[in-house]
User: Fold these one by one.
Assistant:
Number 1:
Amino acid sequence: MKKIPFVTRERLEEICKEYPTPFHIYDEAGIRATARAVNEAFAWNPGFKEYFAVKATPTPGILKILKEEGCGADCSSLTELLLSERCGITGTDVMFSSNETPAEEYVKAAELGAIINLDDITHIDFLEQTIGYIPETICCRYNPGGVYQLGESNEGFQVMDNPGDAKYGMTRAQLFEAFRTLKAKGAKRFGIHAFLASNTISNDYYPALAGQLFELAVELERETGADICFINLSGGVGVDYRPEQPKNDIYAIGAGVREQFERVLTPAGMGDVAIFTEMGRFMLAPHGHLVTRAIHEKHIYKEYIGVDACAANLMRPAIYGAYHHITVMGKEDAPCDHRYDVVGSLCENCDKFAVDRMLPEIERGDLLVIHDTGAHGFSMGYNYNGRLRSAELLLQEDGGVELMRRAETVEDYFATLVW
Ligand SMILES: *Cc1c(COP(=O)(O)O)cnc(C)c1O
């Protein structure tokens, strides 16, 4: 589908007077609409909850909107736990899905009353020694091993790899043993979690995963006597970064999971199991733009457009070769008859937002919108070459603009240095 920015050129030029480029801007109306669609698609399951993957967009202004829409937070570090706490997201509204977890993080998660998702069987003892007990509600992460079969993008593999090569989760045998041990140590309510593939463009990913986990849950409950209360399908639902890609249909996905639920869990007498998700990308990616300005034009062996953003603001193209669509503002209907590399200023040749991209003729001063940067965009930013993180703005439902995070300054960069 044609990608249309959620903000006009005129409005952006106005915004730029107050907040110079580059910046990330997020669309409140779109975020709320997606959250509502997700909740509606899974409304058949009374216990359903989306725990937004905080790492995708760790910005309080965003977490508060999602909290208002009924979402919890999926955290995987101490900072993310503290961020959720400061947004008023605590208790079982927090899922703590981490790996190689430092002890202090389990302490904080337990203090918040978060649901702890154990990445490995050895973490049972580690957790007990760290916090002094085993929580009554506990979750274990499963890794089925082998090869993921659902037709996957290269990029998805770079993020997740095949289950058999991924560092996450427990084997099937370990999962059975873990449930027995946890039960003996006093756990009362159990959950299973698995994450098999990233950025899937298939309405079948969640239903296929759910089918596997539901069958496993029935066996686990029968063999270990553990009371399985929830199944966490984690993240991995993707977005159409390319205009020609199909969109995931969250209603079809919800219905597909329901079908598996009614095939496997309901007949087994487990119809009260809650479904949890931990989507990041699907919730936020389409609702963010990286806005940047063309500042240079260079003709050598290829045609380059230099912009004022760089990979430090959006790393995905540099590290995965990820495609992000670009709209040249004000030239939406002009013919795409120029072939450009659109590049940032890092002294790294991978700092290219687009390679051999057909675009309308770009002039210095043109505003460019880089699409689908709302998740894993700003959050993956870094300070290489002394580049600073940009501001994050919210385009509110009434058209107003709110500053959610100011741009970093050189003083911020210097603040950790010891002279
Ligand atoms: C990254 C991550 C997610 C979110 O993944 P998306 O692909 O953004 O949906 C969810 N859960 C865990 C444990 C993760 O590490």
Note: The longest helix spans residues 205-224.
Number 2:
Amino acid sequence: MTAPARARGSQELIRAEEPVLAHNYHPLPVVVARAEGAWVEDVEGRRYLDMLAGYSALNFGHRHPALVDAAHRQLDRLTLTSRAFHHDRLAGFAERLAALTGTDMVLPMNTGAEAVESGIKVARKWAYDVKGVPADRATIVVAADNFHGRTTTIVGFSTDETARAGFGPFTPGFRVVPYNDLGALEEAVDETTAAVLIEPIQGEAGVLIPDDGYLAGVRELTRRAGCLFVADEIQSGLGRTGHTLAVEHESVVPDVVLLGKALGGGIVPVSAVVGSREVLGVLRPGEHGSTFGGNPLAAAVGTAVVELLETGEFQRRAAELGAVLREGLAALVGRGVVGFRARGLWAGVDVDPALGSGREISERLMREGVLVKDTHGSTIRLAPPLTVTGEELRGALGTLEKVLTS
Ligand SMILES: *Cc1c(COP(=O)(O)O)cnc(C)c1O
């Protein structure tokens, strides 16, 4: 008889990854073993408040009971059919997601990058079939400092050299303009333009919030130019900013919205392209697809996510606790914080570079029991689950104050 394998500790597990795991990430040195709500616990039983929430994939916290319950019930019944057949969960998911987002049609996919790729394909098809752009001439205008995912096409129109270099040749047909600059956008759009693709708030760039009027301006400009407005709400959407969609802040309705991350409830990857019938209606059988897109488990969890958002409770919490977050950060300006941008429960915080890099600040916060992630340079991003309590949030802000001022 062999003795049961001894459980390995954090340091041992981190060392064990090194030779066998591709080095495309540089995680904080914490090894999470279990989680509930806004809290995670490492292998040694230390607890941390999760102020990253899976880049907003965990908007409802870890293992939200309604979502776990929906997943369990579906696991016991039906998990996958492929789209070769109908299944009994897809109609309800699509109807409710369309209603929640105020659109007509839903194209279910899995990851965010797939939703972006699907949005690009749909916009191009619309440009040829409806707008009448000559074959293979369609262009899509995107913003500098964008983050839309990691496929070869998507990194091809990134302006982040780390994401791009070494992965060419890239897909043609994209024009990059500065973000938050309607004049530059106006100049880039012409008769070949299928769509303008932007994030309503640039998350990876450091939670960059455009000036008031920018999103409405993009809507007006694209309507006038006869091209589509495609909003990537994969990180900004589904409650994070205090609205179901971040574009609602300016009462803007894009032609196409890309969703992902929180749509899977932190359980399974679920993404979707939602939009008008005029646009999503261009796809015919065989022209696009995904083996796993819209599978029964994903649809069951996605439906439960939509049900949570239908109550408006999470949007309200994000707005209310967002005020606590802004107040706490404002009190730290000049005391380790150089500046910050926040909307709802989402903030990019520029830390005084003299105090350390974003990475170093993140490591210090980790040692104090708060998990965050740096973006660029000395900027850290705060995006706790929308289920976090005011007390927990104030606690995390207190820890940030301690790390920055001690
Ligand atoms: C995370 C993200 C994506 C990519 O999603 P994946 O699921 O990682 O492929 C695309 N756009 C935005 C705005 C994102 O934040």
Note: The two ends are 53 Å apart (CA to CA).
